[in-house]
Amino acid sequence: VLAELIEKFVSHISESKTDCYFSTGSYKAMDADVKKENLSSLQQLGVEMTVRYGKYLNLLKEDAENDLCFVLMNCEEFLKQQQRTVVSSLCCLQEHYAGYDWFASSIFLIMSGDREKTLMFLQQFSCLLVSAFLWLPRLHLSMHLPVTTVEYGIHPVYFCSAHYVEMLLKAELPLVCSAFHMSGFTPSQICLQWITQCFWNYMDWSEICHYIAICIFLGPDYQIYMCISVFRHLEQDILKHTEA
After folding, report:
1. In this protein, which residues make up the domain named BROMI C-terminal Rab TBC-like (predicted)?
2. Most confident of 62-71, 73-82, 105-114
């Protein structure tokens, strides 16, 4: 039901020029038989984890691994069309996105391993503003960002979402904010980790789906409210650990 709902919503919204924040260009999926060996060792590990989790949730079939590889390779090729060339020694500014694509993997699971549906959805989704915040590889070396922003290698999720989380945390949860300052660790570092991983390994699958759906339906600012609500939920634990 969720798959159908977000599919129809994104398909409808992406037809409106006022809602399309990014241009998507045209892209036709590669027909080649994509194998796991075509991916980096980090991506291969991510694929194995995703497929194992998908089978545990009874969402994927036996041959899901090749389909997920197909989705990831095509996403990389599709997004490459909108990247600029930057010469830098920074790991995060190399041609390939340095991490694993947790958002595309989440959509693959929501679509029950249907590679065509997943790719179609991601292509339409990529023109919406919310894609910049939910799908981190979306803005990797992106031509949609100013050159100086790209060269710093800092993702907008860090200086937008994570920055606003810290501002709200001061007002909403001052004790949690103080606890972080005392620890010498910033809430934005934690948030960036949560957001990059789409809350995998932190929340249950149904909650991960709710997070993705809420941000798609209500806007990227709900990513910030979600992080604040998690901090509120963890407040007593955080304060207890601070005392200890």
Report:
1. 1-243
2. 105-114
How far are the Cα atoms of 118, 146, 152, 204, 207 from residue 82, in angstroms, in the given order?
20, 13, 18, 33, 31
Shortest CA distance to 104 belongs to which of 138, 128, 127?
Answer: 138
d(CA 230, CA 66): 35
Instruction: Answer whether 105's CB lies under 8 Å from 194's CB.
Output: no
The single-letter code of the amino acid at 208 is I
Chain Cα centroid distance, residue 144: 17
Name the phi and psi angles at 62, rounded to 5.
Answer: -60, -40
pLDDT digits (tens, 9 = 90+) for 41-56: 899 999 999 999 999 9
Listed in sequence order, the residues at least 6 apart from 58 whose beta carbon sits closer than 8 Å to its beta carbon are: none
Identify the band that residue 57 occupies on the pLDDT scale cut at 50, 70 and 90: very high
Separation between Cα atoms, residue 80 and residue 95, nearest integer Å = 9
What is the DSSP code (8-state) at residue 158?
I
Q: Where are the domains of the chain?
A: 1-143, 156-243
The answer to whether 80 and 97 are in contact (CB under 8 A) is no
Question: Which is higher by pLDDT, 32 or 178?
Answer: 178
pLDDT band at 34 (very low <50, low <70, confident <90, very high): low
Higher pLDDT, 13 or 92: 13
